[in-house]
Design brief:
By secondary structure, the protein is of the alpha+beta class. The protein has six helices and 13 strands. It has one domain: Fumarylacetoacetate hydrolase, domain 2 (Alpha-Beta Complex). Helix 1 packs across helix 3.
Length: 265
């Protein structure tokens, strides 16, 4: 083990992680070799990995961002006190078909996704953030930590926060601009079923201090990290309800008035 506080060379780290992704091998745990690495160190290596993915083109272009560790239990399990960010690529998009293709173990998450109306470069408030939104979409994330050892938050961030694949439902457009008139997304009841068995049922407002708060945090954190926000980018606000191992079977996710997503693994 290397106990140095110095980080690995960013370009070498990124190249190795990219090769591991291509070879379907687990990523390295940053904290195993660099136990004093900070969350900001991890983000600097995430950025190098993201840039390597963009340059290589294996996973297409950046299509948005996601929040992870939005639940206190998840933060506690990962040794964190706050959520983290991951970058979404077009190559991770899957259709709700039978079956959904995966080449590694995944964890299933029910989430909401927000599509940007236009690019952003200024800090947002929870009251005003609706003016940036074109539509809201039910989402399934297929998360894959894919690390050699049990990860903590630093390991997760450095390897792009378990980002792997996602399934979009049907987009719902509405007037999101006026906070007093926009639909209350926090009341949306979300349930996930495998075959005829219910895996979880939860309201969408259970993450952070609600969906609009989570979205505002995510947008502002993405900007703080220096990632660009463009029109049509997808913002996934984090898992609503528990995470479940993606076992073979038929799944149905219900999102109340927002619709359903049905798929098979």
């Amino acid at each position: 083990m290397n106990n140095s506080t110095h980080l690995p060379d960013a370009s070498e780290w990124a190249a190795e992680q990219l090769q591991r992704l291509r070879d379907q091998r687990p990523y390295r745990n940053l904290s195993a070799d660099y136990p004093n690495a900070s969350i900001e160190d991890a983000y600097s290596l995430q950025r190098a990995f993201v840039n390597a993915l963009i340059e290589a083109g294996d996973w297409g272009s950046v299509v948005g961002y996601k929040a992870a560790l939005t639940a206190p239990q998840a933060q506690q399990a990962m040794g964190s006190t706050h959520p983290v960010v991951g970058v979404l690529f077009g190559g991770g998009e899957r259709l709700a078909q039978r079956p959904v293709s995966t080449d590694r173990p995944v964890m299933l998450e029910t989430e909401l996704g927000f599509r940007l109306q236009h690019g952003l470069a200024t800090t947002q408030t929870e009251q005003a953030v609706g003016a940036c939104i074109r539509s809201v979409t039910p989402m399934i994330e297929l998360a894959a930590p894919n690390l050699e050892q049990r990860p903590n938050a630093i390991d997760l961030v450095a390897s792009n926060s378990a980002t792997y694949a996602f399934i979009s439902g049907t987009a719902v457009e509405a007037d999101w601009q006026d906070p007093s008139a926009r639909p209350n997304l926090d009341r949306v009841s979300i349930g996930l079923f495998q075959d005829s068995n219910i895996l979880h049922a939860e309201t969408a407002g259970s993450i952070m201090q609600g969906q609009w708060h989570a979205l505002t945090w995510l947008l502002n954190e993405v900007m703080r990290l220096g990632y660009p926000l463009a029109a049509d980018h997808l913002l996934m606000t984090g898992s609503v309800g528990a995470l479940h191992p993606g076992k073979p079977g038929d799944y149905r996710a219900e999102y109340g008035a927002l619709g359903n997503i049905e798929f098979t693994l």
